[in-house]
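look at this:
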Amino acid sequence: MRDERIIVALDMHTMEDMKQMVTQLGDSVSFYKVGMELFYSVGIDAITYLKQANKQVFLDLKLHDIPHTVAQSVRALTRLGVDLVTVHGLGGRTMLSAAVEAAKQEAEIKGVKRPKILAVTILTSMDTKDWQEIGGAFDVSQEVSCLASVAQLAGVDGMISSPHEAKVVRQQYGSDFLIVTPGIRPAFSMSQDQKRIATPAQALRNGASYLVIGRPITAATNPQEAAEKIIEEIREV
């Protein structure tokens, strides 16, 4: 039993821990997130292992630099065969467009599948108070809406959004725009350091395309059982 809308976050720093988790989850999970902690610890070996295991890879590095640098980085990541890549929406429309174009060009040159480019908006660890402390003029929902508009104009495939902003984004940009939601906490899990959170079913009803779930699965006594409980929870959503 599996549901491809679930992306398990491999927030760890050794190949051994990663391999053990993927083995424990078996066929119940087919999509994994490789973030900064794992990528900066073991590099492309993590991606190579997952692709050889026929898993999909969401590479979450939140690229944020001048357009040329981001474009060249996306070209390199395209060659690795990743499925989803994040760039930071705060980098602006020109940077986002450069990332999209680089992915298209490199995929065509190499004859590989193009990774989908996702814009990061406001981290789910932040609420409106946090955002305004660093100079944000509006509340988080307004800022997310603004960044989503810029991202859509830049041609990205979708965005990272908390479950709470997902509903508005879905209404604005339609069914083809991907919405990937972190901050997912099933009923049996603590909220930990996330603030704008929701249950898996709530997030999907709000319009999420994919759910990124980490510690509720990876820190569970039985990760496969935890994953299957979540799959059952969203089976009819």
Observations:
- Residues 6-233 form a domain with the TIM Barrel fold (CATH 3.20.20.70).
- Residues 93-110 form the longest helix (18 residues).
- The two ends are 15 Å apart (CA to CA).
